[in-house]
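Researcher: I'm preparing a figure for a lab meeting and need a structural model of a single chain. I don't have an experimental structure, so a prediction will have to do for now. The sequence is pasted below. Please return the structure as C-alpha cells so I can convert it later.
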Amino acid sequence: MLKRKITEQLNNWVTDKTKKCLIVQGARQTGKTFAIERFAEERYDELLEINFKQTPSAVELFQGDITVDNMVTALRFRFPDKKIEPKRTLIFFDEIQECEEAITSLKFWATDDRYDVIASGSLLGIDYKRASSYPVGYVDYITMYALDFEEFLWGLGLSEDIVTSLRSYLETKQEIPNAVHSQMMRYFRLFTAIGGMPEAVQKYIDTKDFRDVDTIQKNLLMGYQYDIAHYATAEEKVKAEKCYLTLAKQLLDKENHKFQYKEIEKGARAQKYYSSVDWLLRADMVHLCKVVTDVRYDLDDYARNDFFRVYTTDLSLLIAMKDFSIKQHIVENTLAGNTKGGLYECAIADALHKKGYSLYFYKNETTKRELDFIFQKNGKVIPVEVKSGNSKAISLSAIMQKEKDIPYAYKFIDGNIGTNEDRIITLPLYMASFI
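Model: Understood. Here is the structure written out cell by cell.
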C-alpha cells in the first residue's frame, strides 16, 4: 500500500476546530479516492461513499430542498446499513463534478457543521456543468498530485529515516557518499521512467516488469484522451487532444521547449489552439511555465501569456507518449542530446510543480541569457538551472552577479553536491524533491 503525503493534510483538516467541507482536487488517477478511503478507515467509525460517476442515480438524493436533515434522511433510506452519525461518519462525495447540486450542498453541510464531508473530483475546473450556487467560502481545498520522488522511495521500501537523512546533506551542503549518491541516481532514473501515477508505481513494485508498467501508462494516457472526448466541447475535442499528444515532441524532441503551435499542424496559430491549451490547463491535465521579461518579484507582473512551455502533470503520461524503448535508455542512462536534457528538465518541473510552486522561465534574445525555471518563495525569486551533465551555468552566474536581491539559486546536475559560488547551490537532480 503506497503511503501518501496527503494523509497528513487530511489529519490537519479533521482536527481543525474551524473546518469547513473539504474538496480534494487534482488530475484523474492520482490516488485521491484511495487516500480518502484509507484516511476514513483510520479516523472514523464509518464511511458513507457516493461515486456519482459509478452511481448516477444518486443525484436524486439532492433534488428538492437541500437541507442537511433532508439529505441525511435521504441517505439513510438509500443506505439503510449506514448509521450516519455526526463526527463518527465521514461522508465522501466522489466524482462530485457529475452532480452539480451535490456541489451546492457543501455550503449547507458546512453551515450545519454536524457532519464531516469530503468531496473529490478530477475535472472541477471545467464548466461543462455549473453548480447553481458554488460554495465559495464554505470549503477548504487540497490539491493532490501523483507521487513525488520521496513518496516513490517510500513505495520502494526505503524508510522515512533513510529518506530524511538525505535532507541533512541538503542542509549542510556536504558531499553525499558516492555509494549513496549512485544508488539515488538509479532510483531517480527509475522514477523518471515510471512516473508517479500510483497504478504504474504499484505495478512496478509488484512485478518489476517494465512492459506491465508500459501497459498501465498507455491505459492512463487513453483515459486522459477519453476525458477530453467526453468533457471537452465539440469545438475543442480534436484540438485539445492534438495539443496534448504533441507534448512529448514539444519537450523531448527539440532543443527549444517553448510550446509551438506549428508542431501540432503546419501553419497552426495561437488563435486556433490557445483555447484548447487553456482547456487542458483547467482540466488539470497540464501545467504551464510562462516566460518572464525580468527576474524580479512579482513574476506575474513580468509574465507573458503568449510564450510558455506546457508540461504534463506527471511523467507517466509524458513517457507513455514515447516508444517503450525510452524506458530502457532512461534506466541505463544511455539517453543523449535534446532528449536527455529535455527529460531532466521535465523531471525538475515535475518535482517543483508537486511542491506547489508556480513555474516561470527567463529568455532574453538580446543578452542571450536564459534560465530554465524561476519560482517564488517568501517574496523572493529563486532561479533554477538544470544540467544533464555538470557544465557551467553561464546565464545563471551572470544573472546572480547582477541581481543582488536574489538570495540564492539552484543548479541541478547529473552529479554530486558541488561548490557553491555566487549564491548558487549545486545539487543532484533528485534533490529537487526535497528543497
